[in-house]
Write a structure and sequence with these properties.
The protein is α/β, with parallel strands linked by helices. The chain folds into two domains: about 300 residues, Rossmann fold (3-Layer(aba) Sandwich), CATH 3.40.50; about 190 residues, no CATH class. About 35% of the residues lie in helices and about 15% in strands. It contains 17 helices and 16 strands. Strand 2 and strand 3 form a beta hairpin. Helix 11 packs across helix 14. It is globular and about 70 Å long.
Length: about 500
């Protein structure tokens, strides 16, 4: 992982040296100049909100601080302060910046806004695999964003709620995403983008963020399409899950956290350095705060309160081996702990049918079942969401199941290998070159196909287009789920789970 990132960083630096400076572009706050190379103009580290530091820590994002002259937009801004060790320094609270890739001489092109994953505790829009150049060459403007993470992005506290004009706290990272979308609406035309054709797209926590934004009244009118890759976990599906995301409970957790760091008040918390706040464990996720998110997804759809836009969503065939240890907090899946781990994963006691389908009579069987159950349950949540859109939405959803195992890298592969969590990203961005693998002809063909398909969806709200394979709209039937992979992939991993084991979405 590190060697690939270093190589990609060197390639990016060399390209930047050969690039020319663009003409200044006026945006909110002042003028910026990026770089131009190979038919794409790139603008990095563009501020979309004021630095959320000092008295602005945990507040909703404030307007950009204006500057004089032409600001250089040639380098990425620091990643948001976080505990993820896989993101290199620099990291900072001052991190509300975005990046833009646009074709030279672009005019009214569709826009894709990428929301990175990382469990809401890690990640950045500057990761090498998110370089938007190859997507931009397909006639779209690509934007990647940062948003506050961990304790800084998802912290609720009674004093924070009281000082907020919206009487809400706990979703600062989501408010950052909304602020970035507002910046796009106000400024993307200056880069040749069409503010009336914006697609929000994300993976993992970014895909979950897409689900929240689709449900949020705060994001109304800020996007016209939505793509969610392996998302929709940290989002209440139905009223029974609301207790997991309740603001009052989150505020109690915030007060308890303040005690652990020796802070008796919000002022004390704001006076603490970043390291002191990141030392205790913190499990970040969006909550039902009454402002950004008002209710569970089912209630939103049944009352037609969602942002009703075309939806493209899906999951991968081997998510579980990466996600199960993160979700369950252990990689020790034994026969003795099997039922307890299944209960923790599902959030309720499993039915006899679930235990029969995912048995754990031996340690080896328990491990295999937990991996498969995690994948299937993750997929069920995406299937459930798409089913709500199919029943209650005016626009049709498109659902995929990614079964392809990419060519293995030369070095031993750890997280995200095979058809694991995030395996599809490099294909969607057509960015196989970031990783020095002996890519197969099918890998390269698939990267071309998926990047073209995602660009088509951003352009017209459908993944179907000239020269692309037919993709039926999802209507709830398994036959309308597109399986992505070659013949061997489909034979080995193409069977869909029995989603009825986990629950059915409500009928009209």
């Amino acid at each position: 992982m590190k060697s690939a990132a270093v190589v990609a960083g060197c390639l990016l630096a060399c390209a930047a040296q050969a690039a020319q400076v663009t003409n200044p572009v006026r945006v909110t706050g002042g003028q910026i100049a990026g770089t131009a190379a190979d038919g794409v103009n790139t603008f990095l580290g563009v501020p979309f909100a004021a630095p959320p530091v000092g008295k602005l820590r945990w507040r909703a994002p404030h307007p950009v601080v204006p500057w004089q002259g032409v600001k250089s937009a040639h380098a990425y801004a620091p990643a948001c302060a976080q505990t993820a060790v896989w993101i290199p320094d620099p990291k900072s609270e001052d991190c509300l910046y975005l990046n833009v890739w646009t074709p030279a001489k672009a005019q009214k092109l569709p826009v894709i806004v990428w929301i990175h994953g990382g469990g809401y505790y890690g990640g950045t829009g500057a990761q090498p695999g998110y370089d938007g150049g190859n997507l931009a060459r397909r006639g779209v403007v690509v934007v990647t964003i940062n948003y506050r993470l961990g304790i800084f992005g998802f912290f609720a506290h009674p004093e924070l709620t009281a000082e907020s004009p919206d009487k809400a706290s706990g979703n600062q990272g989501m408010e950052d995403q909304v602020a970035a979308l507002r910046w796009v609406k106000d400024n993307i035309a200056a880069f040749g983008g069409d503010p009336a054709r914006v697609t929000i797209m994300g993976e993992s926590a970014g895909g979950e963020s897409v689900a929240v934004l689709v449900a949020s009244p705060l994001a109304k009118g800020l996007f016209q399409r939505a793509i969610s890759q392996s998302g929709n976990f940290a989002m209440p599906i139905d009223a029974g899950e609301n207790a997991l995301f309740d603001r009052a409970a989150a505020e109690k957790t915030g007060v308890a956290f303040a005690r652990t760091v020796g802070a008796g008040s919000l002022a004390d918390l704001r006076a603490l350095p970043v390291a002191a706040l990141q030392k205790p464990a913190w499990a970040p996720h969006p909550i039902v705060d009454g402002h950004v998110l008002r209710e569970d997804l089912t209630t939103t759809y049944r009352n037609h309160r969602q942002n009703d836009v075309p939806l493209l969503a899906g999951w991968n065939a081997e998510e579980g081996k990466d996600l199960a240890p993160e979700i369950l907090g252990t990689d020790k899946f034994t026969a003795a702990s099997h039922k307890a781990l299944v209960t923790k994963l599902l959030g309720h006691a499993p039915s006899a049918a679930v235990l029969a389908s995912y048995p754990g009579t031996t340690d080896a069987e328990a491990r295999a079942s937990i991996d498969k159950l995690t994948t299937d349950w993750w997929g069920w949540r995406t299937w459930y969401w798409a089913s709500l859109q199919a029943q209650y939405g005016k626009t049709r959803p498109y659902l995929y199941y990614f079964t392809h195992r990419p060519t293995e890298p030369l070095a031993p592969c750890g997280y995200g290998c095979g058809a694991g969590h995030g395996a599809e990203i490099q294909y969607v961005f057509d960015h196989l070159g970031q990783d020095l693998r002996p890519w197969s002809a099918y890998d390269r063909q698939l990267a071309t196909r998926l990047a073209d398909t995602w660009a088509s969806f951003a352009r017209a709200g459908t993944p179907n287009g000239q020269g692309l394979p037919d993709w039926p709209a999802f209507d709830g039937r398994p036959a309308t789920i597109l399986r992505i992979g070659d013949a061997a992939d489909l034979q080995a991993r193409g069977k869909l789970p029995d989603f009825s084991l986990f629950g059915q979405p409500p009928k009209r």
